[in-house]
Amino acid sequence: MKIETILAHAGLCTDSTTGAVSTPIYQTATFRHPALGVSTGFDYSRTINPTRLALEKVIAELESGDRGFAFASGMAAISAVLMIFKSGDHLIVSDDLYGGTYRIFEKIFRQFGLSATYADTTDLGAVRDAVIPGKTRAIFIETPTNPLMKITDLNEAIALARKNGMLTIVDNTFMTPYLQRPLELGADIVVHSGTKFLGGHNDVLAGAVVTRSAELSDRIGFIQNATGGILGPQDSWLVLRGLKTLALRLEKQQENARTVAQWLEKNDKIKKVYFPGLPDHPGHRVQQKQSSGFGAMLSFRVPDSGWAERIINRVKIITFAESLGGVESLITYPVRQTHGDIPAEMREKIGVTDDLLRLSVGIEHSDDLIRDLEQAMAD
After folding, report:
1. Tens-digit pLDDT profile for residues 290-303
2. Annotation says 188 is catalytic
3. Which of 52, 95, 96, 98 is catalytic?
4. In order of start, what are the domains of the chain with their CATH numbers?
5. Does 98 participate in catalysis according to the annotation?
6. pLDDT (tens digit per residue) in 258-271
7. Which residues of 110-122 are buried (b: 16+ CB within 10 A; e: fewer)?
8. Beta strand pairing status for 330-332 and 356-360?
9. Given 67, 196, 249, 258, the catalytic residue
10. Known catalytic residue: 26?
11. Active site residue: 95, 96, 171, 188, which one?
């Protein structure tokens, strides 16, 4: 079955007792048992809820995984994945990454003995050099990275991980399973902030984990139930509804992103554009090889911080806000917002500086988005 059909049928007729076309919102904490020793398969919503289960099944199918797990946020999903490791374990992590992911590694899990080395995962040699024999248990990859859109060759990274007995964890938020499916390439775990493209309307917080093997599914399932960071039924339903239009939204969004990126590239006020869909992007060919598209995220450099403030304050159609992936275009200032928790010296090293803006391109008409940026930059 084609992925567009799977998406359109997300949550379709899961309630056989009524034939409801849309999965009902099972707003209940507990379930009645028919008799002692007899179960309907549901007992307590922290463990399993029919609405959440419908979402988890479709997420697993979309990513070609063994099982899917829906969490209360993307950070709750990442936290659950990090709980499979123990004190003394070491991970290699993409150095250009979301600030919240850096924060959870450094401010939460480091105190429990989990350590991380931040490496340029687009450079296989750098990844290889970061391996600590007997300690490194996994590579955690963002591709494209946030916010500089660097592309890691997943085939190469996965092969290196396997050779060293490590897991490969991929944050697939920017691409979604519609454009990129890391588990099919051999990755072990995929994580998502479902708040972003999966939900798609800036109206729900959600996270997702999909596992490749039954053994990892059992471990994540135990952690999800034991710690309880689950997605509620109302939010599960909202993500299911969002998934139905994911293919349509992303096709329009990445078409818009390519048009805006091409316009920015020709604008003499813009120093550099970061978008994998541009032919001169360093990761363009790798992205073509491992994905079916280039996504709807881009970043660009302006002359200085004053120009960044000017654009942020003057855009009218594009909204200045954190987050990404919704139908509305959002512009973000990473150095002050999404990456503010990363130390200044690390931000400088990777290039998250005060002249960088990140744009999540929505489904508006591309002409309107370009005109909005044009008037924001006008003298």
Report:
1. 999 999 999 999 99
2. no
3. 98
4. 3-243 (3.40.640.10), 246-377 (3.90.1150.10)
5. yes
6. 999 999 999 999 99
7. eeeebbbbbbbbb
8. antiparallel
9. 196
10. no
11. 171
